[in-house]
Amino acid sequence: MVVSVGAAVELSLTCMSALSLISPAWFQAPTFSFGVLTYCSWPQSDSWNQSCGTFSSLDGIPDFAWKVSAAFLLGGWLLLAFNAILFLSWALAPKKLCPRRGSDKMLGVQAAAAITTIVGLLVFPISLASPFAKEACGTSSVYHRGQCQLGWGYVTAILSVVLASLLPVIRWPRVTKAQGRTILFSSDTEKIILVPEMSK
């Protein structure tokens, strides 16, 4: 049961992170918006008539800080996707085939995905000083958005990394003291482990 819920949460986070990566709505101006991998423009009077483009490779991205951010964000997404696929395989595989479901190593992969994504999110606003961003946002500079507004894509990426960084904390095995014995509640083995107290 715990593994199934973990797999569902991991898949949801992976999809949410992917949606934010392909979103062109990280920073928005009145007639232009851009994200890590995509950008869109539209006429002043008709925002429904958009023309969008993508940066097909890292070479197409206009700024070095933007490239670094894209590499970190894609790396974080790949770690999240790997974690989600592993949790899904644990949820679908018979229990006897995978006795150590949800091991501590996966908590490390989850934490690495969160840290990598946080670095990417912190580096991306440096690219607001690029000529590409200045053309869209006017007087933008490093960590200053100029005339652009923060879009839902960036907010979604922040929300997904907050949730991804909380998951390892939630899944950490809980320890309780009861009548001189340490009781470990572990979702790895789905058993209660009694550890006798050692005298000092």
Number of helical stretches of at least 4 residues: 5
Overall number of strands: 8
Secondary-structure-derived class: alpha+beta
β content, as a range?
15-25%
Distance between the termini: 39 Å
Enumerate the spans where pLDDT stays under 50 for 5 or more consecutive residues: 174-178
Average the pLDDT over all residues and give the rounded result: 78
How many strands, what sense, and barrel or not for the largest sheet?
5 strands, antiparallel
Helix share of residues?
40-55%
Order of helices and strands: HEEEEHHHEHEEE
What keyword list fits this structure?
8 strands; 48% helix; 5-stranded antiparallel beta sheet; 3-stranded antiparallel beta sheet; alpha+beta; 200 residues
Written description of the protein model:
With 200 residues, this protein is of the alpha+beta class. Helices cover 48% and strands 16% of the residues. The protein contains five helices and eight strands. The chain has helices at residues 2-22, 64-92, 104-123, 131-137, 152-171, and strands spanning 27-28, 32-34, 38-41, 51-54, 149-150, 174-178, 181-186, 191-196. The strands form two sheets. The chain has a five-stranded antiparallel β-sheet with strand order 4-3-2-1-5. A three-stranded antiparallel β-sheet has the order 6-7-8, with no helix packed on it. A hairpin with a 2-residue loop joins strand 6 (174-178) and strand 7. 32% of the residues are buried.
